[in-house]
Design brief:
Layout lengths: L5 H12 L11 E4 L6 E5 L4 H18 L4 H17 L1 H12 L3 H21 L7 E2 L6 E9 L2 E5 L7 H13 L3 E4 L5 H18 L8 E3 L4 H9 L3 E7 L2 H13 L3 E5 L4 E5 L5 H13 L9 E7 L3 H14 L18 H16 L3 E3 L17 E4 L15 E7 L2 H9 L3 E2 L1 E5 L3 H8 L8 E4 L11 E2 L2 E2 L6 E2 L8 E9 L15
Parallel strand pairs: 5-6, 5-8, 6-7, 8-9, 10-11, 10-16, 11-14, 13-14, 16-17
Antiparallel strand pairs: 1-2, 3-4, 4-21, 12-13, 15-19, 18-20
Bound molecules: nicotinamide-adenine-dinucleotide.
Nicotinamide-adenine-dinucleotide binds next to α8 and α9.
InterPro entries: Ald_DH/histidinol_DH, Ald_DH_C, Ald_DH_CS_GLU, Ald_DH_N, Aldehyde_DH_dom, ALDH7A1-like
Organism: Salipiger bermudensis (strain DSM 26914 / JCM 13377 / KCTC 12554 / HTCC2601) (Pelagibaca bermudensis)
EC number: 1.2.1.3
């Protein structure tokens, strides 16, 4: 049991991170913890004019930061990783308070930040381009990568800090200042991260200009300022497909760059040869973990008809026995939904599923917290076909289960939804495995074998296709999105041969 009110724990946690924000602003923006549904703080929201001023500061910072050598920029990120390590427990607790995650998931999110910082530090010495064969004698052709400009980062409530850091760590080593508009549901985690970052800046010294990293507290209107500002070279927006449909075209209108990380409708396929115990555990975590509020949560499951009677009763048992409760007070594996609207959306989806002949197991509200908190038993829904709510993302713990008999048909069904984020297959059959990963297999940005859909590592590029937005961030070569490429050709001869043999003698 907590020995102090949640608001006191919130204040203490923020203070430990070094944040000096006033948490009791009369008429301010209320921050509600999903753990209890109570208001834990009231903070000052920023205006559109504040957002514009932040972008201007970042644009000035860019002029300095782009000229600081990459490895030196990496040193700032290295120091930031040190500060994150020192504040891991506090930041993780902040995530639990604001997003309702378990301490282990909260700490895991901070670990992701540390991991991407470490990755970015190495990257700061590897921002290289190619030297390319040229057709002209006495010439050399190469490409160089330059800092891009101000990066606007918009993030969702369910991962209140890691996606910011996936972007910020790379942007900073690439020479770009960042302006962060976190979810209006989780501003405190952002303020805590900013305080931790400023500790690193303090140690780094004068090379870090003012305005290198800034946070904007407030709602979508502030995100729109970033979206529309010609001074923001890249918008990296994480959130719903609904938000991406607004942000994407607006950034395109001004020829800005966009990384869109939007909703998913992720599926698993369980084949006859699967290791069923392993599949069961992976599905349980993938579908129920974080109360179904991960972009990579498993939402659809296709089970081969020959093993349906083995795996579905076992899943029902796991669903019936999973512990639901306040993860800061109990060992519960499933925490709360973010708010009442999420609960309503879940109940609506279950109602639609029932009307289509779905058999719903679980899904009811659990009386484990105050009336103002929304805890639910995760729902397992046996569906006669892929229709209605199965075709869209409902951001809650609902797993729709369907049978299949033919492998080609299940691949078609797997891809027949709007989302294209994450996917997995459980099989020990090499052919099924390879087909799933092939050009006619899963059409998602993430395709896994014998692990679930969630829990990506930072080393790979993260993101998805179709209505997930097509963006990639984090590892691999995602850094290129934060830089601009120049192709340079140098003539070191005494002649002026033209490309393609063109003659133009004057
Ligand atoms: P949301 O779309 O409601 O909000 C996300 C962010 O966008 C918030 O900061 C919000 O203020 C901002 N926003 C909303 N409208 C905007 C507009 N018109 N212009 C600019 N900014 C705007 O999403 P949410 O409810 O916070 O998060 C859940 C959703 O995010 C789910 O769909 C989930 O799948 C998705 N998500 C995706 C990823 C990914 O990497 N693909 C990661 C986490 C969450």
């Amino acid at each position: 049991m907590l020995t102090e009110p949640l608001s006191a724990l919130t204040a203490r946690t923020l203070q430990a991170c070094g944040a000096t924000t006033s948490l009791d602003v009369a008429g301010g923006m209320e921050v509600v913890s999903p753990l209890t549904g109570e208001t834990v703080a009231s903070v000052t929201p920023q205006s559109a004019a504040d957002a514009e001023a932040a972008v201007s500061r970042a644009a000035v910072a860019f002029r300095h930061w782009r000229m600081v050598p990459g490895p030196r920029r990496g040193e700032l990120v290295r120091l930031f990783a040190e500060e994150l390590r020192a504040s891991k427990e506090d930041l993780g607790r902040m995530v639990s308070i604001e997003a309702g995650k378990s301490p282990s998931e909260g700490a895991g999110e901070v670990q992701e930040m540390i991991d991407i910082c470490d990755f970015a530090v190495g990257l700061s010495r590897q921002l290289y381009g190619l030297t390319i064969a040229t057709e002209r004698p006495g010439h050399r052709m190469m490409e160089t990568w330059h800092p891009l400009g101000v990066v606007g980062i918009i993030t969702a409530f369910n991962f209140p800090c890691a996606p910011w850091c996936w972007n910020a760590a790379l942007a900073l080593v690439c020479g770009d200042p960042v302006v962060w508009k976190p979810s209006e549901k989780t501003p405190l985690t952002a303020l805590a991260c900013q305080a931790v970052f400023e500790r690193a800046v303090e140690r780094f010294g004068d090379d870090a200009p003012e305005g290198l990293s800034q946070v904007l507290v407030g709602g979508p209107a502030l995100g729109e300022v970033l979206t529309d500002s010609p001074s923001v070279a890249l918008i990296s927006a994480t959130g719903s497909t609904r938000m991406g449909r607004i942000v994407g075209p607006r950034v395109a209108e001004r020829f800005g760059r966009c990384i869109l990380e939007l909703g998913g409708n992720n599926a698993g396929i369980v084949c006859p040869s699967a290791d069923l115990d392993m599949a069961l555990r992976a599905i349980a975590f993938g579908a129920m973990g974080t109360a179904g509020q991960r972009c990579t949560t498993m939402r659809r499951l296709f089970v081969h008809e020959n093993i349906y009677d083995q795996i579905v009763p076992a899943l029902q048992k796991a669903y019936a026995s999973v512990s639901v409760g306040n993860p800061l007070e109990t060992q519960a594996l499933v925490g709360p939904l973010i708010d009442g609207a999420a609960f309503e959306a879940m109940q609506d989806a279950l109602g639609e599923a029932r009307a289509l002949g779905g058999r719903v197991h679980g899904g009811a509200r659990e009386s484990v917290g105050p009336e103002s908190a929304f805890y639910v038993k995760p729902a397992l829904v046996e569906m006669p076909e892929q229709a209605g709510p199965v075709l869209r993302e409902t951001f809650a713990p609902i797993l729709y289960v369907m049978t299949y008999s033919d492998f080609d048909d299940v691949l078609e069904a797997h891809n027949a939804v709007g989302g294209g984020l994450s996917s997995s297959i459980f099989t020990t059959d090499l052919r099924e495995m390879e087909l799933f990963l092939s050009a006619r297999g899963s059409d998602c940005g993430i395709a896994n074998v014998n692990i679930g859909t969630s829990g990506a590592e930072i080393g790979g590029a993260f993101g998805g296709e179709k209505e997930t937005g097509g963006g990639r961030e984090s590892g691999s070569d995602a850094w290129r999105a934060y830089m601009r490429r120049a192709t340079n050709t140098i003539n070191y001869s005494r002649e002026l041969p033209l490309a393609q043999g063109v003659v133009f003698d004057i």
